[in-house]
C-alpha cells in the first residue's frame, strides 16, 4: 500500500476520530489553555462595514504567539499527552501553521517535534518552525506526499503522528476561539470560517450549536482546492485537485472527523478564487489595520461574495492567521481594491 493510500485509509477507518468532539471538550480545553494563552480581541471595523454592507466583528487570531489560531490545538493536544508520549515526540505534516502550533507546544512541554512540509515551503513559516525548535523536513510537492512521509517517520521512530484535522484534541483546542467569540458576541447572525482540513469550521459549528444557535456558520474554501466543499455537498469523502496558492486552504481531500461535524451543523459552504482572497487581504490591511495571510482573509472574501444577501446582518469574520511571506505580501499590494457595494 502506498503512503497516499495509507493516508486516506487511516482517515476513513479510524473510529477514534469520531469521539471526544463536543462542547464539553471545548470547555475543558478553554480551562487548559487559560494557563498558556490570553483571549484574543474581537471588535468591529467600521470601514469594513461600509464596504461589506454588514456589521463586521473581526476575531484577531493573527496576534497569537505563532501568528495563527492553530496554536490552541497544539497546546491542548500536548497538554493531554503523558510524559512518556511527550518523550517519544510528535511528527506531523503541515503547510506551516499547524506545524507551528505543535512546535510551540512541544517547546512548552519539552517534547521533540518534527514537521514535514511540501516543497516549495513558505520561508517565513520554515524560519518560525525552526525558531520554535522543530526539526523541519521538506518532502514532496503536496500535503498528501508530506503526510505519507511523516507517517512513515513516526512509524520508524515511535513518535506520535498528529493528523492535521482528525484529532479531537486539536478540534477542541481551536474551538476555544469560537467559544470566546460567541460568548462575547452571541448575537451574531453569521460566522464565516475558512476551511482547509476543517478543524476550525467543525469546532465553530459545535460552539455555535451550544451557545449561539441562531448564528449560521458558513464555510469558505478556495475554488482551486475544493475537496472539503465537495465532500460536504456530496455527503461522502472526496479527493479533488489541490491547486490553490493559499497555503492554509491547500488540502486535496475531505477528512472524516471534520466532515462528520460539518455535515450535521454547517449552514452553507462557499467557494472563492485566489484573486478574491488577495483582494480581501488588501482590504483588511487598508480598512482594518490587519495583516492577514491568505487563509486568514478567506472569511472576508466569503462575506464579499455574499454581501448582497448579508445587508445589515451582524457577521463574525475570523482572521485565522497573519503569517504571510514577503512574496505573498507583494502580491497583495498588487491586488485590486474592493469598492463599496
Structure characterization notes:
By secondary structure, the chain is an alpha/beta fold. Helices cover 48% and strands 14% of the residues. The protein has helices at 3-13, 23-33, 46-52, 71-79, 83-88, 97-109, 123-131, 143-157, 168-184, 199-211, 227-234, 256-265, 274-288, 294-305, 326-333; strands at 42-44, 55-60, 90-93, 113-117, 135-138, 160-161, 190-194, 216-222, 268-272, 314-319. The model is unreliable at 1-19 (pLDDT under 50).
| CATH fold category name of the largest domain | Rossmann fold
> How much of the residues is beta strand, in percent?
5-15%
* C-alpha end-to-end distance: 52 Å
Class based on secondary structure composition and strand pairing = alpha/beta
User: What count of structural domains?
Assistant: 2
Residues in helices, as a percent range: 40-55%
Report the biggest beta sheet as strand number plus sense, adding barrel if it closes.
Answer: 6 strands, mixed
Could you say which overall geometry the principal axes of the C-alpha atoms support?
A: globular
**What does the average pLDDT come to?**
92
List unreliable stretches of 5+ residues.
1-19
Give the ordered list of helices and strands.
Answer: HHEHEHHEHEHEHEHEHEHHEHHEH
CATH structural architecture of the largest domain: 3-Layer(aba) Sandwich
Number of helical stretches of at least 4 residues: 15
Rounded to an integer in angstroms, the radius of gyration calculated over CA atoms is: 18 Å
CATH top level assignment of the largest domain: Alpha Beta
Number of strands: 10
- Give, in spatial order, the strands making up the sheet with the most strands: 1-2-10-7-8-9
